[in-house]
Amino acid sequence: MAGMIGLGGVFFKAKDPQKLTAWYQTHLNLPPSEPDNPGLTLPLGDADVGGYQVWSPFRESTDYFQPSESRYMINFRVDDLAALVEQLKRAGIEILGFEDEPYGKFAWIVDPEGTKIELWQPV
To answer: What pLDDT, on the 0 to 100 scale, is given for residue 43?
Structure first.
């Protein structure tokens, strides 16, 4: 049977796509995009060996995405959560919290348009 094999992308509306893309490039080290297309392609490679991505619908009543009012949250895998958190703090970006779970370390921020971002360093 044909089915899902991983996360193909995250697609969402933004008030200013170029400005928002620049924010992600500056603060989360995402690769450059084409000038007239703010979309980004994130390659899968050796860092993903043994790793996984998650597709997980939440109940309508969840408060996990708070303080965002968006109907979605983005989860990014990161290579060094502690270093990234320090970079974000130096840039004046508020860190909403941290968790250390058996399957990885997590931190949360909110982007300029109010979307909650979950940063995940897998074990």
So the answer is: 63
